[in-house]
Every structure is written in structure tokens, then in C-alpha cells.
Amino acid sequence: DLIVHVRDITHPETILQKATVLSVLKNLNLPSHLLDSIVEVHNKVDLIERYKPTEENALAISALHGHGLEELKQEIEKKILTATGKKILTINVNLEGPQLSWLYKEATVQEVEVMPEDGTAMVKVIISSSAFGRYKNLFPN
């Protein structure tokens, strides 16, 4: 669904390495949407003072120090959701009904926050548009 190209930005041949990787990927005859949505990651930015990527859409990280990893995670999540046609939703469900069980079967449940005072839960899910449509048809309230 997604290609993440991590480069050692301190390597003297980093530009040549990128060109080589892109050439190999193109020769694999991958779908164009994969090649067009590559996440470019510049690692080891902690070794270069005040590093700023000059390449458009490149993310600067330091895996060693954790710098930029949250942004990288968000970018990967966004692109994966786009590529797979899924979305992240928070749905309020009645715990006395079958909704929560249905969501566990048909979606990826990430969090469940139970509201004991009213017998409901806020459920954070990753779900396809078609599954969410079925959910709304089965549980209109």
C-alpha cells in the first residue's frame, strides 16, 4: 500500500542512493500510484546542525533521538488510509446492543472508552466506507 524510503542523509552519496532506489523501483513495474506516493524520510538529522530538507515532502527524523517520528507516523497513517479507502472514526455505541461486537468483526477497533453512567461507549475504529455504510443501515440510531 505504501513505500517508505528512509535515507541516511549524512551519507556522502545520499543523492545517488536515492536515484538508484527510484530506478530499481521503476524497473519493478510497480503501479504508478505507489511511486507517486512514496514517503521520503531523511534520517540522522541529529548529525547535521539545523537540518532542513530541501526536497519537497521529505520528512526529517532522528531515529536515535526520536525527533520527527510522530510526524512520520501521522504521514504514514494518512497515506495508508487514503490508499486503502479507510477512515478513522469515533462512534458512540449502546453497550446493550450488538454494535460493539459488529465493529470488532467488521472493522479494526483501536480504543473503547466506556461511559458507565449511560451504558454507552465511544469506540475509535478504522473502517472502510462500505463497512461504515452497512453499520449505518444496521444501526440507524
UniProtKB/TrEMBL annotation:
Superkingdom as given in the UniProt entry: Eukaryota
Gene Ontology CC entries for this record: cytoplasm
Record Pfam families: HflX_C
Entry's Gene Ontology molecular function annotations: GTP binding; ribosome binding
InterPro entries named in the record: G_HFLX_dom, GTPase_HflX, HflX_C, P-loop_NTPase
Limits of the Hflx-type G domain: 1-84
PROSITE patterns: G_HFLX (PS51705)
SUPFAM superfamilies: P-loop containing nucleoside triphosphate hydrolases
Protein name: GTPB6 protein
Organism: Mionectes macconnelli
Gene name as annotated: Gtpbp6
